[in-house]
């Protein structure tokens, strides 16, 4: 087989697609179509920066966590979120290196609002039950989207996801443990939990993104499926979430704020009330309830510490 | 004193228990408060990799506090969580250094935390802890010896971590040196009570629970001079300061910290969380 | 759910744009799980210098497993193969003579002489004798 550099562009593209179809893994220095690189940079930067931004709503509950064990558990969890951000940003940074960009540019893109973060992390947390719910259901949703990409054609991303998913299992159980204590607790505690579910339900449905780009005008799911970065569509993932979690929520005697929610035996699909996709667009456009507060927190910390990075520049 | 089947501290007189409880509060409250202050940095460190690495140290410290509260609970018959959350400021025995806020601003609202202060405070605290744990490993009280040996194992990394940051920043550019010097001055105003052993100091050392203050201070000075030897600065240590945390004197920062840390735990009486 | 937007944008960026980028030097991290195990690659991190890189490595990638040794290597010091050169790694599957597979008939032979074959399992087991 001839060296990749000697091929024509279309030859390279065909060889590349063949590698993907054969289940080979693409590595960072390998030839790849510009579109593949662009799609990956967009996807993984957003994923990584969402982990970094996702640390903030839970961080609010670190000092308040009730008990030494809870304080330790949530500290470890927030640390993992930052750690996932580290893994993913490293993958993304390697992809953008040939374009002359690095982590400073990613942070810049976040601050200048060119790089967006996941819709759930724009929301306010109200009580300790929200901290538990994030672990249980938000991380539960994240496990579903992330395991869907474990076989991704891009090797470094697949390897990062493997590490991440292993830790998400701990996160989900950390969340379940908080939820279980509240569900089995006093009437105040149970109410705290039910309120949290009522508040977060629309955000959880939005988590998986719109069914198609007809819903919101854009969706990157088509390209990611073409390049075998993921296999299932947004809607398939949402259905899988509902199948796994609706029965669990009900089993604890909790309710879901959607009276149209039902499993249709004929189509084998969940029917549910659509969340407000206009609102989704607003939220991911950094116009959610806590979007600017959290961005400002991140901006302030970044600028405040700029002297450290400057001091240690060679 | 040896462990017995019925309790780790059985056979101790009431006064001995009181001495030991005071020492345990010093050790536990130190780690508890500084772990909290460090955890406020979560997500806000100058570098993502550092954020992850130093979060482990905060957790380890909370773990050490938890072990000490466990022992304290054995003595006074209270739950470790209650001891951590419900004791009033006047009953706290932590050093002033461990309770001070990280800088201007609140942790959720445009905090202006000072990384130079964080590094210097942690270097001083951890080096002090190293000296103290070395002394506790020789304690006449065996449960204390056991816990000290466990904590010392993890402290090795903590001390290395903060020493590395200290030396790197002290030897970098002028701006950083100026910030580090300012942080050293600030820490010097808050650390005089680090080695103070509280109101039972003489009894605590006479019983052989821990080495005398002067002896530990001397070891500390030697260790710190080695670290400062790798920079262009000279080590100094204060003799006294306004409040002495070991005697229950504290700043407003402690009240604020405890209020935040107890918010949920104290919100529903008798609840399990 | 009704949206009440958070506080207004007040971002005026100074950032790290003027920096040369050496704060983000790349390092690869390898670790050993136990003294008798081999080094395996974990992941990469960025750090401004070797000293900082070394104190970042374990807690970033090895928070939940035992570690008995650690290597932190500057990525630029690792020699890699280009995509084309990776073709040099492929070979034919006709090298039974390098493996015990090519000598499997010996098992039968030794039986004829009423001896047990000295196969891999048997020989590696001598370590415990």
From TrEMBL, chain A:
Lineage of the species this protein comes from: Bacteria, Bacillati, Bacillota, Bacilli, Bacillales
InterPro entries: Aromatic_CoA_ox/epox, Ferritin-like, Ferritin-like_SF, PaaA, PaaA_PaaC
Name used for this protein in its record: ATPase AAA
Domain of life: Bacteria
Cited NCBIfam families: PA_CoA_Oxy1
GO molecular function, one term: phenylacetyl-CoA 1,2-epoxidase activity
Any one of the GO BP annotations: phenylacetate catabolic process
GO CC entries: cytosol
């Amino acid at each position: 087989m001839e060296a990749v550099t000697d091929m024509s562009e279309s030859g390279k593209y065909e060889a590349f697609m063949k590698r993907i179809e054969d289940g080979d893994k693409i590595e960072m220095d390998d030839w790849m179509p510009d579109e593949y690189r662009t799609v990956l940079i967009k996807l993984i930067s957003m994923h990584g920066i969402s982990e970094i931004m996702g640390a903030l709503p839970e961080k609010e509950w670190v000092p308040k966590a009730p008990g030494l064990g809870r304080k330790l558990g949530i500290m470890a969890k927030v640390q993992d979120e930052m750690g996932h951000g580290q893994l993913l940003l490293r993958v993304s940074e390697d992809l953008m290196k040939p374009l002359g960009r690095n982590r400073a540019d990613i942070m810049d893109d976040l601050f200048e609002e060119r790089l967006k973060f996941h819709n759930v992390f724009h929301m306010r947390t109200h009580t300790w039950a929200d901290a538990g719910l994030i672990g249980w259901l938000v991380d539960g949703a994240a496990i579903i989207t992330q395991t869907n990409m474990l076989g991704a054609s891009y090797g470094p991303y697949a390897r990062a996801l493997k590490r991440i998913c292993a830790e998400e299992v701990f996160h989900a159980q950390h969340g379940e443990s908080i939820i279980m204590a509240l569900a089995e607790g006093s009437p105040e505690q149970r109410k705290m939990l039910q309120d949290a579910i009522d508040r977060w339900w629309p955000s959880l449905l939005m988590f998986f993104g719109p069914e198609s780009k007809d819903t919101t005008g854009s969706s990157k799911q088509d390209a990611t499926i073409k390049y075998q970065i993921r296999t299932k569509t947004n809607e398939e993932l949402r259905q899988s979430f509902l199948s796994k979690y609706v029965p669990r929520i009900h089993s604890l005697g909790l309710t879901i704020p959607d009276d149209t929610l039902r499993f249709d035996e004929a189509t084998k699909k969940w029917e549910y009330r659509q969340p407000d996709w206009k609102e989704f667009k607003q939220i991911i456009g950094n116009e959610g309830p806590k979007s600017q507060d959290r961005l400002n927190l991140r901006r302030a910390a970044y600028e405040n510490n700029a002297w450290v990075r400057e001091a240690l520049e060679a | 004193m040896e462990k017995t089947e019925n309790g780790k501290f059985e056979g101790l007189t009431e006064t001995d228990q009181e001495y030991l409880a005071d020492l345990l509060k010093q050790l536990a409250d130190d780690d508890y408060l500084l772990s909290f202050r460090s955890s406020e940095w979560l997500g806000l460190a100058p570098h993502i990799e550092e954020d992850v690495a130093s979060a482990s140290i905060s957790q380890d410290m909370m773990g050490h506090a938890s072990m000490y509260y466990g022992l304290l609970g054995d003595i006074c018959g209270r739950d470790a969580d209650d001891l951590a959350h419900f004791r009033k400021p006047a009953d706290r025995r932590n050093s002033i250094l461990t309770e001070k806020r990280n800088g201007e601003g609140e942790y959720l609202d445009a905090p202006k935390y000072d990384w130079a202060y964080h590094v210097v405070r942690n270097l001083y605290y951890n080096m002090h802890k190293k000296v103290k744990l070395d002394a506790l490993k020789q304690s006449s009280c065996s449960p204390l010896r056991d816990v000290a040996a466990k904590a010392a194992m993890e402290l090795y990394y903590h001390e290395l971590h903060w020493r590395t940051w200290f030396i790197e920043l002290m030897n970098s550019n002028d701006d950083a040196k100026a910030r580090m010097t300012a942080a050293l001055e600030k820490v010097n105003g808050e650390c005089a009570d680090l080695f103070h052993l509280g109101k039972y100091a003489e009894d605590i050392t006479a019983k052989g629970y821990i080495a005398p203050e002067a002896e530990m201070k001397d070891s500390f000075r030697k260790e710190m001079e080695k670290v400062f030897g790798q920079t262009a600065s000279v080590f100094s240590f204060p003799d006294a300061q306004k409040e002495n945390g070991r005697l229950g004197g504290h700043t407003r920062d402690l009240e604020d910290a405890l209020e935040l840390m107890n918010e949920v735990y104290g919100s529903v009486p008798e609840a399990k969380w | 759910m009704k949206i009440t937007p958070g506080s207004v944008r007040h971002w005026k960026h100074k950032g790290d744009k003027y920096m040369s980028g050496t704060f983000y030097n790349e390092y690869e991290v390898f670790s050993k799980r136990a003294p008798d195990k081999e080094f395996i690659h974990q992941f990469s991190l960025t750090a401004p210098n070797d000293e900082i890189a070394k104190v970042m490595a374990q807690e970033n990638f090895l928070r939940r497993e035992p570690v008995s040794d650690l290597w932190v290597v500057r990525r630029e010091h690792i020699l890699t193969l280009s995509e084309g050169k990776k073709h040099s790694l492929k070979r034919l599957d006709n090298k039974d003579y390098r493996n015990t597979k090519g000598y499997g008939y010996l098992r039968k032979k030794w039986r004829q002489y009423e001896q047990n074959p000295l196969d891999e399992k048997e020989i590696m087991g001598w370590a415990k004798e």
